[in-house]
């Protein structure tokens, strides 16, 4: 009787290899499902581009993520003749073109004005566009129209103040902001800006009076900082130091208070305390290089070269992307 022969090892191995090479039905279904998901995701992203673009919001959505000015002009300028474009959409389109194509932006803003003549927002936008084109008469006309359509709105005078300040006319800027403050005396932001412009126009007493009227509307520590700034601009640094110290006591977490205290201390000759105040300002706001840059500049001015080198090393380590600022404020000889 012959003995039963075992199956060849090679055959068993070949069968095992075949099983490995042939994907299981479950694995095949998983790969197919993954492919379907990827295809659907791609289609979802392509749908907005494949659909006919006959709505202004579609052009605006594409323009928002487009960097080139010429491409934006091609997308947005046709909206001036689009019957479905709202004045708000035309203004947004003009805003998107303002930096690189002010003439085209003006065309869109003018169409928004035609469709909604009483909109103060359109007149304010036109004033900014005209300023970009250096058309002073157009700026004046737009601001006058803005005041006419919204006589109680402070924004036209706020913009007038900003434009005058940009041109170096601090006296005119203070006057315009004063009109805005009269229209909105309870607005703390307008009040703070008015006080700063009064201080820049060398009217410190009036500036301090405006700040006094903001008691209860602005956090006390921030209000003390603003008062200290007015005193510093009036060359009353010793008084400013005392006010800035009060601000740090009122809010020990306010970086700005320590920053201004450090600068004021340096002006009165207390270099060591000035350095410590600026270091504390930096500790409270680690995201900004401003305090360290000021510290390095003061150390260089005080001939503390070794300390300045250490500060510069810290600046370069933490703010490597701000080298131009570092070179300007902390140029080691």
How is the secondary structure organized here?
Blueprint: H1 9-21, H2 25-50, H3 56-64, H4 69-76, H5 87-98, H6 102-115, H7 120-132, H8 136-149, H9 155-166, H10 170-183, H11 188-200, H12 204-212, H13 220-233, H14 237-250, H15 255-267, H16 271-284, H17 290-301, H18 305-318, H19 323-329
Descriptive terms for the model:
single chain, 333 residues, mainly alpha, Serine Threonine Protein Phosphatase 5, Tetratricopeptide repeat, 19 helices, disordered N terminus
Structure report:
By secondary structure, the chain is mainly α. Among the domains are: 59-150, Serine Threonine Protein Phosphatase 5, Tetratricopeptide repeat; 152-214, Alpha Horseshoe (Serine Threonine Protein Phosphatase 5, Tetratricopeptide repeat). The chain has 19 helices and no strands. The chain has helices at 9-21, 25-50, 56-64, 69-76, 87-98, 102-115, 120-132, 136-149, 155-166, 170-183, 188-200, 204-212, 220-233, 237-250, 255-267, 271-284, 290-301, 305-318, 323-329. It is globular. The model is unreliable at 1-21 (pLDDT under 50).
């Amino acid at each position: 009787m012959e003995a039963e022969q075992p199956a060849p090892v090679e055959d068993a191995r070949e069968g095992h290899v075949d099983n490995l090479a042939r994907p299981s039905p479950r694995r095949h279904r998983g790969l197919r499902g993954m492919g379907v998901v990827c295809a659907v995701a791609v289609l979802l992203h392509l749908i907005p581009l494949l659909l006919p673009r006959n709505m202004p919001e579609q052009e605006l959505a594409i323009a928002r993520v487009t960097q080139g000015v010429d491409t934006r002009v091609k997308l947005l300028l046709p909206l001036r003749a689009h019957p479905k474009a709202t004045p708000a959409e035309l203004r947004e389109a003009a805003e998107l073109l303002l930096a690189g194509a002010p003439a085209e932006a003006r065309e869109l803003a003018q169409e928004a004005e035609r469709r909604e003549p009483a909109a103060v927002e359109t007149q304010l936008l036109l004033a900014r566009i005209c300023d970009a084109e250096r058309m002073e008469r157009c700026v004046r006309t737009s601001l006058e129209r803005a005041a006419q359509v919204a006589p109680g709105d402070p924004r036209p005078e706020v913009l007038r103040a900003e434009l005058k300040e940009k041109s170096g006319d601090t006296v005119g800027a203070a006057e315009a902001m004063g009109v805005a403050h009269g229209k909105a005396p309870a607005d703390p932001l307008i009040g703070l800006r008015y006080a700063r412009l009064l201080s820049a126009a060398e009217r410190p007493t009036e500036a301090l009076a405006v700040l006094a009227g903001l008691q209860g509307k602005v956090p006390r520590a921030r209000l003390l900082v603003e008062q200290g700034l007015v005193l510093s601009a009036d060359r009353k640094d010793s008084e400013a130091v005392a006010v800035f110290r009060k601000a740090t006591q009122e809010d020990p977490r306010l970086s700005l208070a320590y920053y201004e205290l450090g600068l004021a201390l340096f002006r009165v000759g207390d270099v060591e305390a000035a350095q410590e105040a600026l270091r504390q300002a930096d500790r409270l706001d680690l995201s900004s290089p401003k305090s360290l840059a000021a510290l390095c500049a003061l150390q260089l001015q005080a001939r503390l070269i070794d300390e300045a080198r250490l500060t510069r090393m810290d600046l370069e380590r933490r703010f490597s992307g701000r080298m131009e600022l570092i070179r300007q404020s902390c140029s080691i000889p």
